[in-house]
């Protein structure tokens, strides 16, 4: 199996090799407190051993449920927000056909897959209901807390739709809840309605939950090989277990981003040249944004889909404020290939590319862009990925989770909490008139006058 590698040679104009070695003690300390479960947020580090600890019985159960959904449904709806949908969405976008949903009614076994509950748009939800009206539907509602407003509203509406369509009992048989093992409104509802349920472990936070039923069930329904994903994650676990920075590319990545941050490179763009990586970037943004953005610190995580965004953001990246660095996910082998053919009249002037593949052109775009951006003062870290397969998806997930934990500890924050997210919720509840928020409501309404 070809390996994922990190190439940081394109950052060496900006940092010295010795600077990374200077961080060895900090990395070692971060490794020690993470692995000994002694660091801040230690109660949420169950993800560390997940690739090994996940039970075979659970995997079999997930696969059976997925098969049942595939047999019963034209449409599978995943209701969740943040860590309760981004991992599944990232995998499905990366690993299934670009036009998966359009192919659904033809000859594939997986149903069409849609997401809901990741915002509060009535237009989106109404149009989704219109789309699925005449189709056979199954739903997976996912919420660790079981109380998040966005998925709760979407699920209330979808539940009514399902009960009108299938009756109460029929709807229950088509609804799966993934939530806490005992607490939260969703757990209570699932018990009451008799839904099939999957448990999100107590010690795994939302953004670290891709390799639990949160991510694995939707992936299995989409026809993705979840065992291969876990194999990739296991390999990453092994590769990232060594505290010696010289021998651990995950820790090199964690250290370099901290070195660059201390040199005012406060924005990291995760960049890819395949559009199927877009939601992987969204997943990565939550992972690093929620983990490190606190105590008035943290790299701002952003994404770029190249070459598309070179025609919109390229100017800024090349010549704007020099506070950026890029981490590029460079894919070595395409899933599909197209060769550019010669044209007799060559009116578009592209005959110089005749006989070349589009992947070759994409590779040259990557090489040219990397050199231009370095020349423009943007350090580049390159993560070489042999191919976009379930194995490498699993590897990347674990690689970035581990890097995030280590990087957060080097930064001096608790990488496993997200206290700041509560503030908007408090205001929203107050403005909506939720019981218990009366005082806050008065104060906020005063400010809105
Ligand atoms: O799974 P839940 O509890 O609905 O939470 C969804 C998301 O909301 C947050 O808790 C932030 O409010 C994220 O950390 C989490 O991934």
TrEMBL record:
CDD domains (alphabetical): SIS_PGI_1, SIS_PGI_2
Catalytic activity reported: alpha-D-glucose 6-phosphate = beta-D-fructose 6-phosphate
Catalytic residues (positions): 290, 425
Name this polypeptide is given: Glucose-6-phosphate isomerase
Gene Ontology biological process: gluconeogenesis; glucose 6-phosphate metabolic process; glycolytic process
Keywords: Cytoplasm, Gluconeogenesis, Glycolysis, Isomerase
Main localization of the protein described in the UniProt heading: cytoplasm
Source organism of the structure: Alkaliphilus serpentinus
Pfam families recorded: PGI
